[in-house]
Amino acid sequence: MSSKFTRVTYLCRDVSNYKFWDTFVLEGDFDIEDVRRWMFDGEFFIPERVGLPRLLPELRNDDDHDLRSLEWVERCLDGRALRSAAEFGERMAAASKKGSFTDVDSWFFGASTHLLLRE
User: Fold this and answer.
1) pLDDT tens figures, 39-64
2) Pairing of strands 68-76, 44-45
């Protein structure tokens, strides 16, 4: 009996437009559209709030932010899943309900951003 897996690629784009990519594997079918409603502006999330690496070196510009984007998914045979697709969706929903991705003023307007988003 074979399981279905989904490889998800996510992106960090810093203020200088340098790009940092990473992937993770979920067990089961996953579509970005399934979690878009829980993401800031339907596109961004904070990886650490859902158990993923941050993707940005510690050295950073004061204008950088902690928001990342899910870029694409592909079905795969890789059985080394981080967690199930359902659990990842639950983590996204829980982080959103806590306000982790939706406080626009805190990440967009000034230095208080970094303090709030790194609790």
Assistant:
1) 888 888 888 888 887 776 665 666 66
2) antiparallel
What is the end-to-end Cα distance of the chain in Å, rounded? 42
3-state secondary structure of 1: coil
Domain coordinates of the chain in residue numbers?
Answer: 5-117
| 29-65 burial code (b ≥16 CB/10 A, e <16) | ebebeebeebbbeeebbbbbbbebeebbeeeeeeebb
| β-pair type (83-84, 44-45) | unpaired
Does the structure show a pLDDT above 90 at 25?
yes
SS3 content of the chain, % helix, strand, coil (to 5): 30, 25, 45
